């Protein structure tokens, strides 16, 4: 990790707390230094020296006792006894110095030996030792306790040997001299250093609990006790003991030790400790850490070495070696031997345990199906588990020493290096592991997909890798299946939408020459209905192949569902809109031609056509809007005759909106009862007699005006649910049911009034065969209203090729048996008319309005109409001409043999009142006068009932 990165991860101390801690340290140094300077100069007078040497030390000790006691009340209960012991120890020191000052300053006497001050000074070390034991880390095993005792004696015995040689031997000889008071003085002389030796041994041997909160406090307290022990050692030495006086430089050590102990509890609180830096492992760090951690463990051996060297020095120098020194030295050596034996046994047990664990982990590594690799900081593989042979097809020995980068796919190497660098720079506590997936070169040369869990290891990496090639392949298959059509393997709607979105964003965002093509196969349903769905699937597969081959390499061909396909034609950056439209239109037309070629399916030749809508990516358009525009253009192509290409224009969307509004108005009109029923008379062209009435729906506007909204009727009758259909098909069915029921009900009322003219109701074949309508609804309607046989004529448009003729034939035959007459609407248009004449029970033929409008002006239409009328008469059917608006048309149609007419030449649609007036009259004037039928078959059986009336009444004007 870089130095700036490590610095960012280090918690900075609080500014205010850091300043206060530094101020306290400076104050401590200034006070201690001032005391030392005063002691060195003798304080200016002997009296002041005694005061500062006695009561000054007592004040410092009392300050330390109060500070430790206050700190003990505010910390964790586990450490509280230790600081209470330090407070008691400091209090004993303050008491001893106070007693010493009582004698020297207040009583001006020499301090007696022994005195209460000696008792207080002797009570300083034991509480401090107890406090250190409380803070120490306790051994967890019996051998640990034994080693702790041996270490204590090694250090204590070595210090005792050294102290005995320097000073304690003289004190012992003084006690043996038998002089008065020699024994108490000798005991005091021996007690002080022995307690100090015990205290020093505890400091050097014990390992202390140092958390982040009390590390500085414990270290400072230990330093204060060590400084106090050092001053005691100098006091008991022969050089200073005989010449010591209160207020000398030696008192500065005790004073500084007491102040340092008083400051110790607040060392951590005043200056927050920084968090340990998460420094990444280095190759040389494992060699330096054991040396640092072994220094405390080497302390007993160093002490024993000092003891041995001291004895050897006395022997070599020819000095007499005291028996106490020899005895102590021998016990130190014996303790060292015992300790070494315990450590040897402990090392043997640890070695065996380590060997067992190593064998255990070796078995785990070698038996694992994952490949475990250790890479050096340079990237060289230092270890590879045997599983590499089964996973990578390469022996582990072959991979050891290989550069890891040489085994990773070049396209993945940059990403892997970036992830490894990021991982090594992250704090280990926050991110202990990472996961990397890349392609790894196998022994056979192919690339395997490998997933690796990466951990840090001595500056390098440990990689736990596994082969996930099958999983990646399965994921790719699932992804492909989710984005492609299962039948044709072309992109599906989801993938096509995403690619359209990609084409409209990024670097292509400003290219408005991108186009989307929506393609629908005309006549595909007939293929399914005639030769089966299996053949239809084969046709779709072949059509998809043709479409895929026809588009360019960078374009996208997709199947949206059913027989709908789409193509995304990427733009070329052209700014000439007209040229680009011509180019894309040419591509679309070639696609249309290709898809319209005959298909060879199941040994038969099948033909379908293609209707294509094209939409361009205008500025600011969204993918959904672009695809909607192409869909609208495709429906316009189908409505315009199919097998054609249509470019999207804004008015197409406006037309959809308008149709949606009309559908909404239709819904409202149906619910609010705003539709009215009118009837247009059907007149005999021979004598003008009214032979029937055609029921027609009209919408009543808010102003009460009735008018014919052709778009309303078209929305109602031709709703298909798509963009070109307009309204909900159920609304058209609802309007048809309303029209049929109202027409039958009013016809029944007219029948009761004596007007026996049939009512003609137009109905589509799809609605008649609608399975959602209850079977027998027409029959039930006739029975409910009591309309007699022959009173209803169903005007049927049977030119839709999607209508199943067999089912339609059965339905019409059943109605025909009940006396319902069938009229074939639109005769003369559509290819299904001849089939309808051949198979359906048709009674009346209704000529298409397009034939009637041009029957006078066009000789060609005249001949066609004459031929159709001749067929009708030969079949014994009556004929009705729709849209007869001019007298010339009446005379021409009558001359060709047409039996009935309907149009403005006689009357427009009438309301019920006007209709009954017309029925009372019974006839309308016929242009050219009354004439006999031109063909005998025109009046054959099945003619409409004719009611004659006065010819002198004025025609009723249309509503």
TrEMBL record:
Residues 930-959 are annotated as: Disordered. PROSITE patterns: EAL, GGDEF, PAS. InterPro entries: Biofilm_reg_signaling (IPR052155), EAL_dom (IPR001633), EAL_sf (IPR035919), GGDEF_dom (IPR000160), Nucleotide_cyclase (IPR029787), PAS (IPR000014), PAS-like_dom_sf (IPR035965), PAS_4 (IPR013656). Residues 659-923 form the EAL domain. It holds the Pfam family EAL. Residues 949-959 have a biased composition (Polar residues). Residues 512-650 form the GGDEF domain. Residues 357-427 form the PAS domain. Keywords: Membrane, Transmembrane, Transmembrane helix. The chain crosses the membrane at residues 21-43, 55-72, 84-103, 115-136, 143-166, 186-206, 218-240, 290-313, 325-345. It comes from the Bacteria. The keyword Membrane applies. The keyword Transmembrane helix applies. NCBIfam families: GGDEF (TIGR00254), sensory_box (TIGR00229). This is Phosphodiesterase. It comes from Streptomyces katrae. The lineage of its organism: Bacteria, Bacillati, Actinomycetota, Actinomycetes, Kitasatosporales.
């Amino acid at each position: 990790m870089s130095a700036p990165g490590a610095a960012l991860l280090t918690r900075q101390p609080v500014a205010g707390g850091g300043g206060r801690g530094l101020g306290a340290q400076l104050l401590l140094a200034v006070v201690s230094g001032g005391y030392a300077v005063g002691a060195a100069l003798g304080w200016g007078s002997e009296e002041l020296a005694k005061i500062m040497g006695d009561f000054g030390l007592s004040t410092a000790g009392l300050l330390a006792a109060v500070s430790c006691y206050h700190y003990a009340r505010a910390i964790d209960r586990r450490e509280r006894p230790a600081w209470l012991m330090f407070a008691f120890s400091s209090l004993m020191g303050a008491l001893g110095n106070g007693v010493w000052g009582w004698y020297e300053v207040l009583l001006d006497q020499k301090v007696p030996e022994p005195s209460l001050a000696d008792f207080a000074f002797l009570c300083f070390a034991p509480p401090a030792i107890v406090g250190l034991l409380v803070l120490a880390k306790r051994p967890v095993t019996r051998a640990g306790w034994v080693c702790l005792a041996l270490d204590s004696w090694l250090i204590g015995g070595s210090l005792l040997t050294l102290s005995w040689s320097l000073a304690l031997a003289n004190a012992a000889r003084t006690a043996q001299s038998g002089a008065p008071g020699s024994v108490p003085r000798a005991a005091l002389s021996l007690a002080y250093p022995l307690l100090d030796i015990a205290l020093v041994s505890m400091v050097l041997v014990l390992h202390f609990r140092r958390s982040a909160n009390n590390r500085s406090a414990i270290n400072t307290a230990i330093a204060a006790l060590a400084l106090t022990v050092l001053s005691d050692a100098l006091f008991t030495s022969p050089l200073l003991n005989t010449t010591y006086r209160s207020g000398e430089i030696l008192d500065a050590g005790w004073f500084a030790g007491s102040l340092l102990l008083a400051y110790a509890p607040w060392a951590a609180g005043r200056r927050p400790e920084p968090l340990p830096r998460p420094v990444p492992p280095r190759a040389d760090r494992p060699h330096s850490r054991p040396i640092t951690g072994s220094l405390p463990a080497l302390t007993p051996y160093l002490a024993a070495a000092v003891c041995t060297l001291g004895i050897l020095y006395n022997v070599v120098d020819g000095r007499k070696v005291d028996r106490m020194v020899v005895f102590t030295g021998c016990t130190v050596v014996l303790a060292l031997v015992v300790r070494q034996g315990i450590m040897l046994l402990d090392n043997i047990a640890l070695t065996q345990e380590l060997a067992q664990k190593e064998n255990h982990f070796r078995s785990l590594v070698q038996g694992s199906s994952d490949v475990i690799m250790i890479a050096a900081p340079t990237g060289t593989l230092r270890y590879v588990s045997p599983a590499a042979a089964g996973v990578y097809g390469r022996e582990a020995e072959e991979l050891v020493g290989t550069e890891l980068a040489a085994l990773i796919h070049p396209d993945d190497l940059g990403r892997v290096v970036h992830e490894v660098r990021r991982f090594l720079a992250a704090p280990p506590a926050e991110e202990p592991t990472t996961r990397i997936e890349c392609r790894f070169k196998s022994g056979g040369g192919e690339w395997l997909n490998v997933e690796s869990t990466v951990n840090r290891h001595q500056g390098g990496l440990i990689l736990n890798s596994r082969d996930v090639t099958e999983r990646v392949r399965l994921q790719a298959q699932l992804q492909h299946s989710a984005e492609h059509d299962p039948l044709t393997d072309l992109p599906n709607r989801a993938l096509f939408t995403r690619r359209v979105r990609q084409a409209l964003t990024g670097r292509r965002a400003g290219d408005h020459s991108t186009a989307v093509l929506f393609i629908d196969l005309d006549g595909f349903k007939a293929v399914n209905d005639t030769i089966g769905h299996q053949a239809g699937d084969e046709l779709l597969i072949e059509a998809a192949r043709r479409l895929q081959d026809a588009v360019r390499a960078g374009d996208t061909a997709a199947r949206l569902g059913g027989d709908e396909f789409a193509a995304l034609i990427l733009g070329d950056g052209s700014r000439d809109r007209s040229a680009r439209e011509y180019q894309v239109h040419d591509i679309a037309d070639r696609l249309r031609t290709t898809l319209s070629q005959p298909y060879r399916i199941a040994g038969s030749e099948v033909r379908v056509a293609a209707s294509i809508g094209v939409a361009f990516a205008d500025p600011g358009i969204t993918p959904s809007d672009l695809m909607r525009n192409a869909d609208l253009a495709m429906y316009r192509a189908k409505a315009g005759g199919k097998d054609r290409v249509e470019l999207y224009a804004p008015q197409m969307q406006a037309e959809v909106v308008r149709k949606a509004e009309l559908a909404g108005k239709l819904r409202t009109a149906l619910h609010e009862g705003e539709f009215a029923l009118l009837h247009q008379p059907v007149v005999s062209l021979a004598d003008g007699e009214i032979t029937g009435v055609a029921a027609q729906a009209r919408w009543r506007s808010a102003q009460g005006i009735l008018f014919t909204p052709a778009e309303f009727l078209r929305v109602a009758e031709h709703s298909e649910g798509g963009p070109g259909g307009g309204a909900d098909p159920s609304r058209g069915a609802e309007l048809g049911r309303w029209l049929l029921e109202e027409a039958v009900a009013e016809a029944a009322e007219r029948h009761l009034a004596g007007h026996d003219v049939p009512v003609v109701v137009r109905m589509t074949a799809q609605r008649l065969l609608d399975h959602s309508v209850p079977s027998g609804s027409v029959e039930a309607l006739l029975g409910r209203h009591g309309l007699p046989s022959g009173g209803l004529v169903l005007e049927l448009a049977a030119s839709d090729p999607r209508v199943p003729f067999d089912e339609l034939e059965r339905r019409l035959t059943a109605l025909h048996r009940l006396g319902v007459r069938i009229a074939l609407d639109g005769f003369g248009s559509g290819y299904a008319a001849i089939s309808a004449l051949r198979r359906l029970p048709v009674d009346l033929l209704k000529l298409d309005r397009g034939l009637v409008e041009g029957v006078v002006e066009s000789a060609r239409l005249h001949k066609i109409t004459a031929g159709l009328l001749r067929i009708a008469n030969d079949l014994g059917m009556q004929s009705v001409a729709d849209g007869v608006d001019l007298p010339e048309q009446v005379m021409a149609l009558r001359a060709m043999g047409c039996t009935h007419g309907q149009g403005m030449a006689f009357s427009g649609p009438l309301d019920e009142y006007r209709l009954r007036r017309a029925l009372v009259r019974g006839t309308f004037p016929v242009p050219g006068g009354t004439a006999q039928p031109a063909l005998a078959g025109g009046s054959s059986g099945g003619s409409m009932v004719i009611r004659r009336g006065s010819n002198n009444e004025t025609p009723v004007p249309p509503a």
